[in-house]
């Protein structure tokens, strides 16, 4: 009976961790379209002079360092792509310019140590994946 209780407790705790995890979704769902672009590019918001993103394409796929912007011009996110998939160190920002989250992505999943901050730059959560 004790083993069943421990199993159910472990299952409950693991399910709770997944549902409270700010980035538990598959990060490769954000692939974007493959294009005919090659090389460094700047993308602008429609009907605007404001940058939406800057980065590098290789054979039509995002590859290398990319930076994304809010309409107000502040950085929204920055990190690396490999074959159109997020890979490596990523950092997201709140609209006020302060860091929202930072950590490493490997094989479309969060990996290693991640930190999450509120809009006043207070550390609110740390997760080791």
Q: Main beta sheet: strand number and arrangement? A: 9 strands, antiparallel
Label the overall shape.
flat
The whole-number mean of residue pLDDT values reads 82
Number of H- or I-type helical stretches: 1
Count of DSSP strands: 9
Radius of gyration: 18 Å
Beta fraction of the residues?
A: over 45%
Give the termini separation: 31 Å
Uncertain parts: 1-19
Structural class: mainly beta
What is the succession of H and E elements? HEEEEEEEEE
Helix share of residues? Answer: 10-25%
Keywords: Signal
Organism: Aquimarina litoralis
Signal peptide: 1-19
Protein name: MORN repeat variant
Summarize this, please?
This protein is mainly β and 129 residues long. The protein contains 1 helix and 9 strands.
Task: Explain the overall architecture.
Keywords: Signal. It comes from Aquimarina litoralis. Residues 1-19 form the signal peptide. By secondary structure, the protein is mostly beta strands. The protein contains 1 helix and 9 strands, in the order αβββββββββ. Strands 1, 2, 3, 4, 5, 6, 7, 8 and 9 form a 9-stranded antiparallel beta sheet that branches. A hairpin with a 2-residue loop joins strand 7 and strand 8 (109-117). The longest helix has 19 residues, at 2-20.
């Amino acid at each position: 009976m004790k083993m069943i209780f421990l199993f159910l407790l472990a299952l409950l705790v693991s399910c709770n961790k997944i549902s409270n995890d700010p980035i538990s979704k598959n990060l490769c769902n954000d692939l974007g379209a493959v294009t005919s672009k090659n090389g460094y590019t700047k993308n602008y918001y429609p009907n605007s002079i404001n940058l939406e993103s800057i980065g590098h394409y290789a054979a039509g796929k995002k590859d290398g360092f990319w930076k994304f912007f809010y309409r107000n011009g502040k950085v929204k996110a920055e990190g690396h792509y490999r074959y159109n998939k997020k890979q490596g160190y990523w950092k997201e920002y709140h609209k006020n310019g302060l860091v929202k989250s930072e950590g490493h992505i490997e094989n479309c999943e969060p990996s290693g140590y991640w930190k999450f901050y509120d809009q006043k730059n207070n550390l609110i959560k740390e997760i080791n994946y």
